[in-house]
Amino acid sequence: MNRQHFELLEQARRALPEGFKTELSGDLIVVQASPSAIHQLNLSKIRRQFDVHVPAGYIDTGNTDLESPQTAKVRNPDLTYLPEEAMTTTDSSVAAELALIAVEVVSPSNPENDWVGKLRDYPLMGVPLYLVVDARQKVVTLFSEVENGRYRLREDADFGEGVHIPEPFAFVFDTGVLRPYG
After folding, report:
1. What value does the mean pLDDT take over residues 74-102?
2. Would you say residue 2 lies in a domain?
3. 83-93 pLDDT per residue, tens
4. How far apart are alpha carbons 86 and 70 in whole angstroms?
5. 16 lies in a domain?
6. pTM listed for this prediction
7. Are 163 and 142 in contact (CB under 8 A)?
8. Sign of the alpha-carbon torsion through 83, 89, 90, 96
9. Of 20, 68, 93, 140, which has the most beta carbons under 10 Å away?
10. In terms of residue numbers, what domain contains 57?
11. Pick from 31, 34, 39: which is nearest to 106 by CA?
């Protein structure tokens, strides 16, 4: 990522009021408002399941910038798992390829960011797994096996069905605990 992209991202962050997330996808700055309570509830239920299966030496984190200088992208997943050692920096971002997974709970106001933008960006950034939880449509989708800058595999499940989360987590994610919007 060139210095100009980084400076533009930092300017956008300083200009926004508290409670907004800012990301960079090439030349596009993406801004989102703070998530709703039900969004946070679903995220908590997701985190609880993953925390039981996280490999040693990795920690859960939300709102940590994943940076990929070679692709000029900075994304901020709702939840990811990173090596604890990578979190000892005072930098505002961590190398994206260190993430084991990116988890997004779809925002009802900007679903394209999760279904299009992040689906395009995460494999390019080297994130091996991408879990999308869409409480609007009551569906969970896991994207995996990065090849040629895209995910090769996709597994869809309706709320109430299980999703097979591969290594390094290796468990069946119970979507029955999730709450739909509305």
Report:
1. 94
2. no
3. 999 999 888 78
4. 19
5. no
6. 0.84
7. yes
8. negative
9. 140
10. 36-177
11. 39
